[in-house]
Write a structure and sequence with these properties.
The complex is a heterodimer of chains A (about 450) and B (about 60). With about 450 residues, chain A is of the alpha/beta class. Chain A is about 35% helix and about 15% strand. Chain A contains 16 helices and 11 strands. The longest helix of chain A has 26 residues, at about 290-315. In chain A, about 55% of the residues are buried. Classes of the chains: A alpha/beta (about 450), B mainly alpha (about 60).
Chain lengths: ~450, ~60
């Protein structure tokens, strides 16, 4: 849980610090105490020592404790990438992590993940299963599983993850928090261990779109920040009704080519939510969905294979079965398929944007096709394992990475078992700020209480 | 690869085993069959290309 004296949001904490209600070092020590005293969620791989000198309180993230997916080079430590290796020193620091620290954030911990970021769940042969703070029987999505758990459990105010086929958005949806995948390339991938470089996107897990916006703004390079945010400060996203003025929305809550049928309860929840928010929304047809998902799959497997084939040739068991299966397929995919996927990407993206966003600002789609499943359904060693349930987690995710569009997943309510139901909103490339503003407005109608 | 029939799973599995072995990877027959199954799923589909052409026209 968030330390008793501290607000649950970054903006709330910053306001308290500005009023003198708590000092930066008190705030950080309180967060570190909670994080250091906690291991029941099984989401932490490494705890960093607190700084000897605390950041100046004028910095926008002073007092804010963050922890990140163990895929980033952080404070002299090489990423573990879910392999369970022991500490290895590094002279690198991921560009985005450094920017957050330059803006005053304090690095508290590195967090668990699926091995080599391969997996729609937090299952990892090298690590114990992470615990979902909402329901211990509920699965935790991957691959940024530790990030979602830590943020949902109140162990940190936000976390950076990476999203190649939904790895920020899936775990966020299973833990009832916000998962933001910016336009591809806006947040620099330097210092991040690659999975599939053409698809990899640094993303943000946070408790609200407002917090995600603050972290996003602080993590951007100066030129990009000016381009996206202009001269607006930290209050650029505040959930006010102005963000919804004149917004045109389209939606697709089912699709024959999504790869998994959308559960009736989820479909109904999404339709009801749009009605509650009061938006008229046009149906979107999402042509080419199967093709885009196929191209994304091909690119992921081929590029992932290129990263790991040499180590597989030296030692077949050097990586676990899940990641290995992807690499083996990638090694056998004809180069013509990969070339085609890459060469058609720009034209398909242009067509998709022109077609889908011709009369709409945002596209709303499901985050997950089914209610958040139990671990027993998606854990590959379980007798009840369902490959369909596992693969279904990706079904509304992969094409977004192929197109490189900004997307945000946010909780809109609870299902019959009190597990989160989430919606996914997608925008044109570069429309990240408007997307965050609209998400903040929309989340004001969510029935899900903030639990941290 | 263009000569491999994606509808013929045993032939494809044999191709997979040859491809992996040529890259120094000793996969089992079951693993090669699993890869073959993935390749069948990822193989180009006529309907997908029609879909793409339709979208380009509509745009």
């Amino acid at each position: 849980m968030t330390p008793a004296r501290l607000p649950s949001t970054i903006s709330g904490l910053r306001a308290l610090i500005a009023q003198g209600g708590v000092s930066v070092d008190e705030a950080i020590r309180a967060q570190a105490d909670v994080l250091n005293g906690e291991d029941r969620y099984r989401c932490i791989t490494h705890r960093f020592a607190l700084p000897k000198i605390y950041p100046a309180s004028r910095l926008p993230l002073a007092g804010v404790g963050l922890a990140h997916k163990d895929i980033f080079h952080m404070s002299g430590r090489s990423p573990d990438c879910g392999t369970g290796r022991s500490f290895r020193a590094s002279r690198k620091n991921a560009a985005t992590i450094k920017r957050l620290q330059d803006q005053g954030a304090t690095l508290l911990a590195a967090l668990t993940m699926a091995e080599h970021a391969c997996g729609a769940t937090g299952e990892n042969p090298n690590l114990p299963l992470p615990l979902n703070p909402i329901d211990p029987d509920a699965m935790v999505g991957g691959s940024s599983s530790g990030s979602a758990v830590a943020v949902a459990a109140g162990l940190c105010y936000g976390s950076l993850g990476s999203d190649t086929a939904g790895s920020v958005r899936i775990p966020a949806a299973t833990c009832g928090i916000v998962g933001f995948k910016p336009t591809r390339g806006l947040l620099r991938a330097a210092g991040v261990a690659p999975l599939a470089p053409s698809l990899d996107t640094v993303g943000i897990l946070a408790r609200s779109p407002e917090d995600a916006a603050i972290l996003f703004q602080c993590a951007l390079a100066r030129e990009t920040r000016l381009r996206i945010f202009g001269g607006q400060g930290g209050a650029a996203v505040d959930g006010s009704a102005g963000a919804a003025s004149g917004v045109r929305l389209c939606h697709a809550f089912s699709h024959k080519d999504a790869g998994a049928a959308v559960h009736g309860d989820i479909h109904e929840a999404l339709v009801c939510f749009l009605a509650t928010v009061g938006f008229e929304s046009m149906p979107a047809s999402l042509p080419c969905l199967a093709l885009m998902n196929r191209y994304a799959d091909i690119m992921l497997r081929v590029e992932m294979s290129a990263m790991h084939l040499r180590s597989l040739a030296c030692n077949f068991n050097s990586i676990g079965a899940g990641a290995r299966a992807l690499a083996l397929t990638g090694a056998c995919i004809p180069s013509a398929w990969y070339t085609e996927a890459l060469s058609r990407r720009a034209a398909i993206t242009r067509s998709f944007i022109d077609y889908t966003f011709a009369a709409a600002d945002f596209l709303a789609i499901p985050a997950l096709p089914d209610p958040v499943p139990d671990w027993r359904l998606v854990h590959t060693a379980s007798v009840d394992f369902s490959a369909k349930a596992l693969l279904g987690l990706f079904s509304w995710m992969r094409f977004v990475n192929y197109l490189g569009l900004p997307a945000i997943v946010l909780p809109i309510g609870l299902d019959r078992r009190a597990r989160p139901v989430s919606i996914q909103l997608i925008a044109r490339p570069g429309d990240d700020l408007r997307l965050l503003q609209f998400a903040a407005y929309v989340m004001g109608f969510s029935e899900q209480p903030l639990r941290v | 690869m263009s000569e491999v029939k994606y509808s013929h799973r045993p032939e494809l599995a044999a191709y997979v085993m040859w491809t992996l072995h040529s890259q120094g990877i000793q996969a089992t027959a079951a693993q090669c069959q699993a890869v073959a199954k993935d390749l069948v799923r990822l193989a180009p589909a006529r309907s997908a290309d029609h879909d793409s052409a339709a979208m380009t026209r509509q745009a």
